[in-house]
Design brief:
- Among the domains are: 281-434, Methylamine Dehydrogenase, Chain H, CATH 2.130.10.10; 561-727, no CATH class; 733-835; 847-919, no CATH class; 1014-1221, no CATH class.
- It contains 37 helices and 32 strands.
- The chain has 1223 residues and is an alpha+beta fold.
- The two termini are 51 Å apart.
- 43% of the residues lie in helices and 17% in strands.
């Protein structure tokens, strides 16, 4: 049912909703003659003479907050970077320096307009909004604002030009009632004709009225005021007051009663007349017959809000009262009369609207609907703000497990007392009820109701109500101690369709919300990606400001294309085209600024948990943009420090402009680095191509080399942390890098050769470059060599990734062959230019062991290290073992140095033995070892061969031979060494695994036969197993595929790997005597014992496999079999649980000695599931979608287990463990 807001949340002062065509407190005042005085509560005057004239003039209403004359957006050529004096206009948005924006987009901007008075700042900074009630409001008619607690009211003219405006302080009526004393009074300013300062009307929760004729009284203690009283029931309290006319106000009480307050003067005496609304003669509400509800006639319930509608004849207007049960239509006259025109059951109407929206279902009211606010738009439609309980899912609860509320606006059309629904508009914001007093959500209509602003205590939502438009913007205060205290109504800025809403924020002063109505209404569903982009813009351009009160965030459930939004913004920042960018004078600083913006972009995505939503291409694009900017910044700084390199860039840029036909102005290089960074690869290619022309001066080669080395080093710095920052897989090379296109790779290689050749010839070029520059060239030769090989390797990885996708390996094989040739040509110049250590390092890094072996046998290279060739060779054999040694030994064979090959017997006999056994058939090599009596070696070969055998029948033979070899190696069977025992145990564990598979095969055959006999259809063995398992445990398609694949292999006698065997044991049907979970634990333990051999469970996945075993064990039994113990004795409950698969598993495991490391409780089993990387490593042949499907299976298991834990599985597990221990 509907409930009224709690008293502590319901006392926020509300300006009345008005029809824009009717004179109101926001428009020109209308002179009102004193009304006729009915029976009323007479007012009294405290102090002074009535209606004294203020000695201060109210500032002109033509002055807007913050003197917004400078708020026009424009592109100003004078703001251009001094480094780019010859550029044409940048095209970015220039903003007046007088305006401090906290959020800015084409539809909405938020800026700071003024500070709070010093007296208010001192209070609000220290205020505890969690406990103390505060309210406030901004009155555009008078130009004044106020902030109020339950004891004091601060008022000031917010339009004043002074930095800290004069503050008027008024004591508020105190309430002796303890409950009501926690509420704040309500207030309204009283405007007058002319230039008089406004008066102030304050009504306490108990109904005491105080009226100061001028706010000027607040400068001198505010002791003189007029006083009156609202007569109401003792159980009621005043909720709020609305200005009907300049001297007529309407008070709403918590009991849903309305009172008219009329300020008048008679013979110089001020009177405040308070009269309760009387229904008078009104129409019997027809609608109550159409909307059945629990509310009886007259049972309106608690008062919630009031909205003033359009004017009627005879100086009256409609007023819509929203209560807990009803929506009442009143006609209110200026001449002291009112009548109830109609009333309707609003609860039933709203619930029907929820049903039509597909939110409410048939049955009882379970959504906890709540009415919050009412307004009337320019078309006379009634808008009701509601909230209801969110769906019962993981997203409907806050971090504290408090249910969230969902908000929506119901639009109602009333015509001759007939009510129809005109629209249901979700506010698209979920939150828990704000427990702080004075934070009930309220609506502010914009552009006659085409848009709406809904403000909560710490959140402001701006949304379009135009049909088809989908604009939504949520602004949340970042500081939980901060909150909004009050808002003004929407005011249209002259000559525009921009509407300004002023707000008081406790820690930040007065803010302006400018809603650009035309842009908001033109925002349609097709622009959701633009919405995302705008959110990203706000976050990176404004979110980093310390003084910004708003926290920008991005929901993981966002709509729109995040890839497109992020990459579009990234590209605009890279090319300095983002309209919110600051124009910075110095280009070096501007490049750094853009780099920081891109870094902020990726950090924002990461911190909001949405970076993983980006595709691999999207991540690569973001990384590439940031990388290009880093390179551009490094090159520009290098050019500024070394102007000789500028000519090479200018030559290449001239060629670029000729080819593209672009004109970049008088200073094209600066403009390129500002607006054309995306074409940096083309420019660098032009540089390398230009300086490698025949007969290029060495000085030009030096300039090109500096640019190339600077670019490569910047790329290297960026990529060292890019994979971590951008969440890209270390071995994912599917996306081509801009630095390793075919043209870039070859041009870099040509540059290296162009420098190496003159250095190798040692030509006398002293007239071109100095000796220091020659030395610099030789140093850069090392960097370029590293770069050339890195680029070839990078391109090779990319082509190999394409080969795996397309199956066409031609390009990859060609590059692989080309890379081998390039490495040989790179090494020579390094040796000649005394850079042998670099050559060795590179060959080792890229594992060109053949070339490395050749270098190790060159005496001149060895001398560079101060060693002879044999010492150098031994060093790399120790580091790379067989990989290098085999190439070295082959070099010995091919070059006839057999004596050196045989000499390795003294240094590396094991490696030499491996090499000599390289070519014989590995399947029979163990026979030679047995013949020669090397049983240990034979056992090792047999162990490796056994893991490679395809069938477990063959494995049984091979592992049996391995065990015999291990026994033969041990002379004394009664005194086996620890190592001998370990080796024998390994053999036995392998045989036990084989035996387990044989046993499992027999068991599954029986299951298949049973299932086939039961099903008249002809089923294959594996499908019969799948059907049985799926029927017993309700497995999904992905799990069934696992069972089918493993069962099919087992029926074909194909040996299962440890993980496959664990899957089958834990997922198989329950028929048979085999405890699959216990046997799976044994498989896991045996795999750990044989982890040094191929085919066993990798160490990194052993714990994950154990967690999977326990997770499935906890889920194997129906929950009722485990938990249904109501009415049973302890012994009966224990007996019932002892027949479950889980208890059988735990019992078997408890009988095994030294099994503590195999036990996991439910919390440990749910700690983590196999990661996507682990699944991909286990199934390298699987596509990404298949990997994700398996990942979802594991996640589903964990979710179900968490649900059982919530139902008491942890306690049940502990009880079963204690039962097994006999306690």
């Amino acid at each position: 049912m509907f409930s009224s807001p709690a008293p502590s949340q319901a006392n926020l002062r509300r300006p009345a909703r008005t029809h824009p065509s009717y004179p109101t407190s926001r428009q020109a005042s209308v002179a009102i003659s004193p009304p006729r005085t009915p029976r009323h509560q007479a007012s009294s005057y405290v102090g002074g003479s009535p209606f004294s004239t203020s000695r201060y003039g109210t500032p002109s209403a033509t002055l807007r907050m913050g003197q917004k004359m400078g708020r026009a957006r424009h592109a100003d050529d004078s703001m251009m970077d001094l480094d780019a004096q010859s550029e044409r206009s940048v095209g970015t948005v220039g903003e007046s320096s007088a305006i401090k924006y906290f959020a800015h987009r084409t539809e909405l901007s938020v800026s700071q307009s003024a500070h709070l008075p010093r007296e208010v700042q001192k209070i609000t900074v220290r205020a505890d909004f969690q406990e103390d009630a505060w309210s406030g409001a901004i009155d555009a008619t008078t130009g004044y604002a106020f902030v109020m607690s339950n004891s004091v009211c601060f008022a000031w003219c917010y339009r004043t030009m002074s930095v800290l405006p004069t503050c008027y302080i008024f004591p508020t009526p105190r309430d002796v009632n303890i409950e009501r004393s926690r509420l704040t009074p309500v207030a309204e300013f009283v405007p007058y004709d002319g230039a008089r300062e406004p008066g102030l009307l304050v009504v306490s929760p108990s109904g005491e009225i105080r009226y100061w004729e001028s706010v000027d009284a607040g400068l001198s203690g505010a002791e003189k005021y007029h006083q009156s009283q609202v007569n109401m029931d003792q159980t009621e309290y005043v909720k709020t007051v609305y200005r009907y006319e300049n001297l007529i106000y309407i008070v709403l009480t918590s009991g849903g009663q309305l009172h008219r307050l009329t300020i008048s003067s008679s013979m110089g005496q001020c009177n405040i007349i308070a009269t309760k609304f009387k229904s008078g003669t009104y129409l019997q509400p027809i609608t109550r017959y159409f909307f059945a509800g629990n509310a009886k006639a007259g049972d309106s319930g608690a008062g919630i809000a009031l909205a003033l509608g359009s004017s009627r004849a005879k100086h009256s207007r409609d007023a819509w009262l929203l209560t807990e049960n009803q929506l009442q239509k009143w006609e209110v006259s200026v001449d002291s009369w009112e009548k109830l025109v109609d009333e309707m059951d609003v609860r039933g109407f709203v619930y029907n609207a929820l049903q039509r929206a597909g939110i409410a279902r048939d049955g009882a009211h379970a959504l906890d609907e709540e009415l919050l606010d009412v307004a009337v738009d320019s078309n006379g439609l009634i808008l009701i703000l509601i909230s209801y309980a969110g769906k019962s899912d993981a997203h409907s609860f806050s971090a504290s497990n408090t249910p969230t509320r969902t908000y929506a606006i119901v639009r109602i059309k009333e015509e001759k007392c007939v009510y129809t629904e005109e629209g249901f508009d979700p506010v698209s914001y979920d939150m828990i009820r704000d427990p702080r007093p004075g934070t009930a959500p309220r609506m502010i209509l914009v552009d006659g109701g085409a848009s709406v602003v809904v403000h909560f205590g710490s959140v402001v939502v701006v949304a379009s109500l135009t049909k088809g438009a989908t604009f939504r913007q949520t602004l949340s205060l970042k500081d939980p101690r901060n909150r909004t205290l009050g808002f003004g109504d929407a005011q249209r800025i002259d000559g525009t369709n921009t509407w300004e809403i002023n707000a008081i924020v406790a820690h930040n002063g007065l803010l302006n919300f400018d809603v650009h109505a035309d842009k908001v209404q033109a925002f349609y569903a097709g622009t959701q990606t633009n919405q995302l982009k705008s959110t990203l813009e706000q976050a990176i351009f404004y979110g980093s400001m310390d003084e910004n009160p708003f926290l920008f965030s991005l929901s993981p459930h966002h709509e729109g294309n995040l890839d497109a939004a992020a990459t579009s913004l990234s590209r605009e920042i890279m090319n300095s085209n983002a309209y919110l960018m600051r124009p910075i004078l110095d280009l070096r600083s501007h490049l750094t600024y853009r780099i920081d913006l891109l870094r902020s972009l990726v950090l924002f995505l990461t911190n909001n948990g949405v970076a993983g939503h980006l595709s691999i291409s999207g991540k690569a694009q973001l990384s590439e943009d940031a990388e290009k900017l880093s390179v551009a910044s490094s090159i520009w700084r290098m050019v500024n420090a070394n102007s000789h390199s500028k000519s090479a860039l200018l030559d290449a840029l001239g060629t670029y402009m000729e080819r593209t036909g672009e004109e970049l102005g008088e200073d094209p290089l600066r403009i390129f680095f500002r607006h054309k960074v995306d074409q940096l690869g083309v420019l660098l290619f032009g540089v390398y191509d230009r300086v490698t022309l025949e007969r290029t001066p060495l000085s030009m080669l030096l300039a090109g080399s500096r640019i190339a080395c600077t670019a490569y080093e910047a790329v290297d710095r960026h990529r060292k942390d890019a994979r971590t920052v951008y969440g890209m897989e270390q071995d994912d090379h599917r996306i081509a890098q801009w630095t390793s296109t075919a043209s870039q790779v070859e041009s870099f290689y040509r540059l290296y050769i162009a420098i190496a050749m003159p250095l190798a010839r040692n030509h006398d070029r002293s007239t071109e470059v100095t000796l220091a520059e020659v030395a610099e060239l030789r140093e850069m030769l090392k960097t370029l060599a590293n770069a050339v090989l890195a680029l070839f390797s990078e391109r090779g990885h990319h082509l190999f990734a394409l080969t795996r996708e397309t199956g066409n390996d031609r390009a990859y094989l060609e590059l692989k062959q080309r890379s081998a040739t390039v490495r040989q040509q790179v090494v020579g110049p390094l040796i000649i230019n005394h850079a042998a250590p670099t050559a060795f390092k590179l060959m080792a890094q890229y594992e060109d062991f053949r070339l490395l072996a050749e270098l190790c046998n060159r005496q001149d290279c060895a001398k560079a290290f101060g060693d002879d060739v044999d010492v150098l060779s031994d060093r790399y054999i120790m580091e790379f073992e067989d990989a290098f040694a085999f190439e070295l030994y082959k070099w010995y064979q091919e070059n006839g140095q057999l004596q050196k090959l045989i000499g390795q017997e003294d240094h590396h006999p094991e490696i030499l033995g491996h090499f000599l056994e390289k070519y014989p058939d590995p399947r029979i090599s163990w026979m030679h070892d047995i013949v020669t009596g090397d049983y240990n070696k034979a056992a090792g070969a047999l162990a490796a061969q056994g893991e490679q055998e395809r069938t477990f029948t063959a494995q049984k033979i091979v592992f049996s031979l391995e065990k015999l070899c291990q026994l033969a190696e041990s002379n004394d069977m009664e005194a086996l060494s620890d190592n001998d025992e370990r080796q024998i145990q390994k053999c036995e564990s392998a045989l036990e695994t084989v035996s387990m598979q044989e046993k499992l095969l027999e068991e599954l055959r029986e299951v298949a036969e049973t299932e086939q006999a039961r099903d008249p259809k002809s089923l294959s063995d594996d499908q019969a197993i799948v059907n049985r398992a799926a029927r017993e445990r309700n497995f999904g398609a992905a799990t069934q595929n696992i069972i089918r694949r493993c069962t099919r292999q087992l029926f074909e006698h194909i040996a299962l790997g440890s993980e496959d065997l664990i899957d089958l044991l834990t997922l198989k049907p329950s028929q048979g005597l085999t405890d699959g979970f216990f046997e799976a634990c044994m498989i896991c333990e045996r795999a750990a014992m044989r982890q040094d051999q191929s085919g066993t469970l990798p160490p990194g996945r052993q714990q994950s496999a154990l967690q999977t075993i326990w997770r499935r064990a906890f889920l194997s039994d129906p929950w009722g079999d485990l938990s249904a113990i109501s009415g049973l004795t302890d012994d009966e409950a224990n007996e019932q649980r002892s027949h479950t698969a889980l208890f059988n598993f735990m019992q078997n495991l408890s009988h095994r000695q030294d099994s503590d490391h195999l036990w996991l409780d439910p919390a440990q089993a749910t700690h983590e599931t196999p990661s996507r990387e682990q699944i991909a490593a286990r199934y390298p042949q699987y596509s990404q979608s298949q990997v994700l499907e398996l990942e979802s299976v594991y996640e589903a298991e964990r979710t179900l287990l968490e649900e059982r834990r919530a139902d008491g599985l942890d306690v049940l597990y502990a009880a079963m463990r204690m039962q097994l221990l006999g306690r």
